[in-house]
Specification:
CATH architecture of the largest domain: 3-Layer(aba) Sandwich
CATH topology of the largest domain: Rossmann fold
Largest sheet: 7 strands, parallel
Strand order of the largest sheet: 4-3-2-1-5-6-7
Distance between the termini: 27 Å
Number of domains: 2
Helix content: 40-55%
Mean pLDDT: 93
Order of helices and strands: HHHHEHHEHEEHEHEHHEH
Length: 281
Amino acid sequence: MQDNRHHPFRDSHQDREAATHIPDTPQTRAPSYALAFADEDFMCRPELRPVRLQLELLKPEMLMNEAGIDSTIVLFGGARIPAPANKESARTQTLADLSKYYDEARRFSQMMTERSLKSGGTEDVIVTGGGPGVMEAGNRGALDAGGQSIGLNIVLPHEQAPNEYVTPDLCFNFHYFAIRKMHFLMRASAVCVFPGGFGTLDEMFEALTLIQTGRMAQVPFLLFGQSFWEKIINWDALSDAGTISAEDLKLFRFVETAEEAVEALDNWDGKGEKRGLIPGR
């Protein structure tokens, strides 16, 4: 956002530009002479980690504020789940069978975005990890409805890029997983989790832990695919062992289809009272 306030100091952009036209001398070539905020090597020093953490928190927050994003619906899910048209390429039959959730994620996102657009398109905006699979389906469904969606990508060792359906001005890239996770939940009005792997499990359990411990508002929390989740996690065993309480099993609800998910959101007790991470924590 352009700062139109009048002040007597030179603008940082002006000085950064001026610094590119200085005389070439041993002194000006020395790394120490570079402007600190324009010195990439300096910014990547280990001692600057607190500053980099702050910048990763600030940049998406400022840009989403400028875009007027008031609340989001979070979609977590597997990057390897193919679209039904491509399910023959799946490495296992189980993965091919899970392709139905690509369509459910896409339809759910379309339905929720259509609703959002009726009230200005800034509430319940779809946010995904910006990658392939279920994430792609979520961003794609929002685009199908003619709305915007957010993608929170992260730099990974292997080559990858955001999916083509993320709204470009709301597509972000992260170095720190922790800050990325904060942005997933800071505006969350609901969390929807589709079948996935380690990353999906990590995101799901962290969000559930935040809700369980009162560090996050008790927003609607939906798990798509009851048979998948009950096969890989013995929820009742956790309760029977006493490592969680029976009440904790009420923090989430199973759904199978986009329509069931919309109905569950509409009938969730306390929906709309509060959302996201508890302010100041």
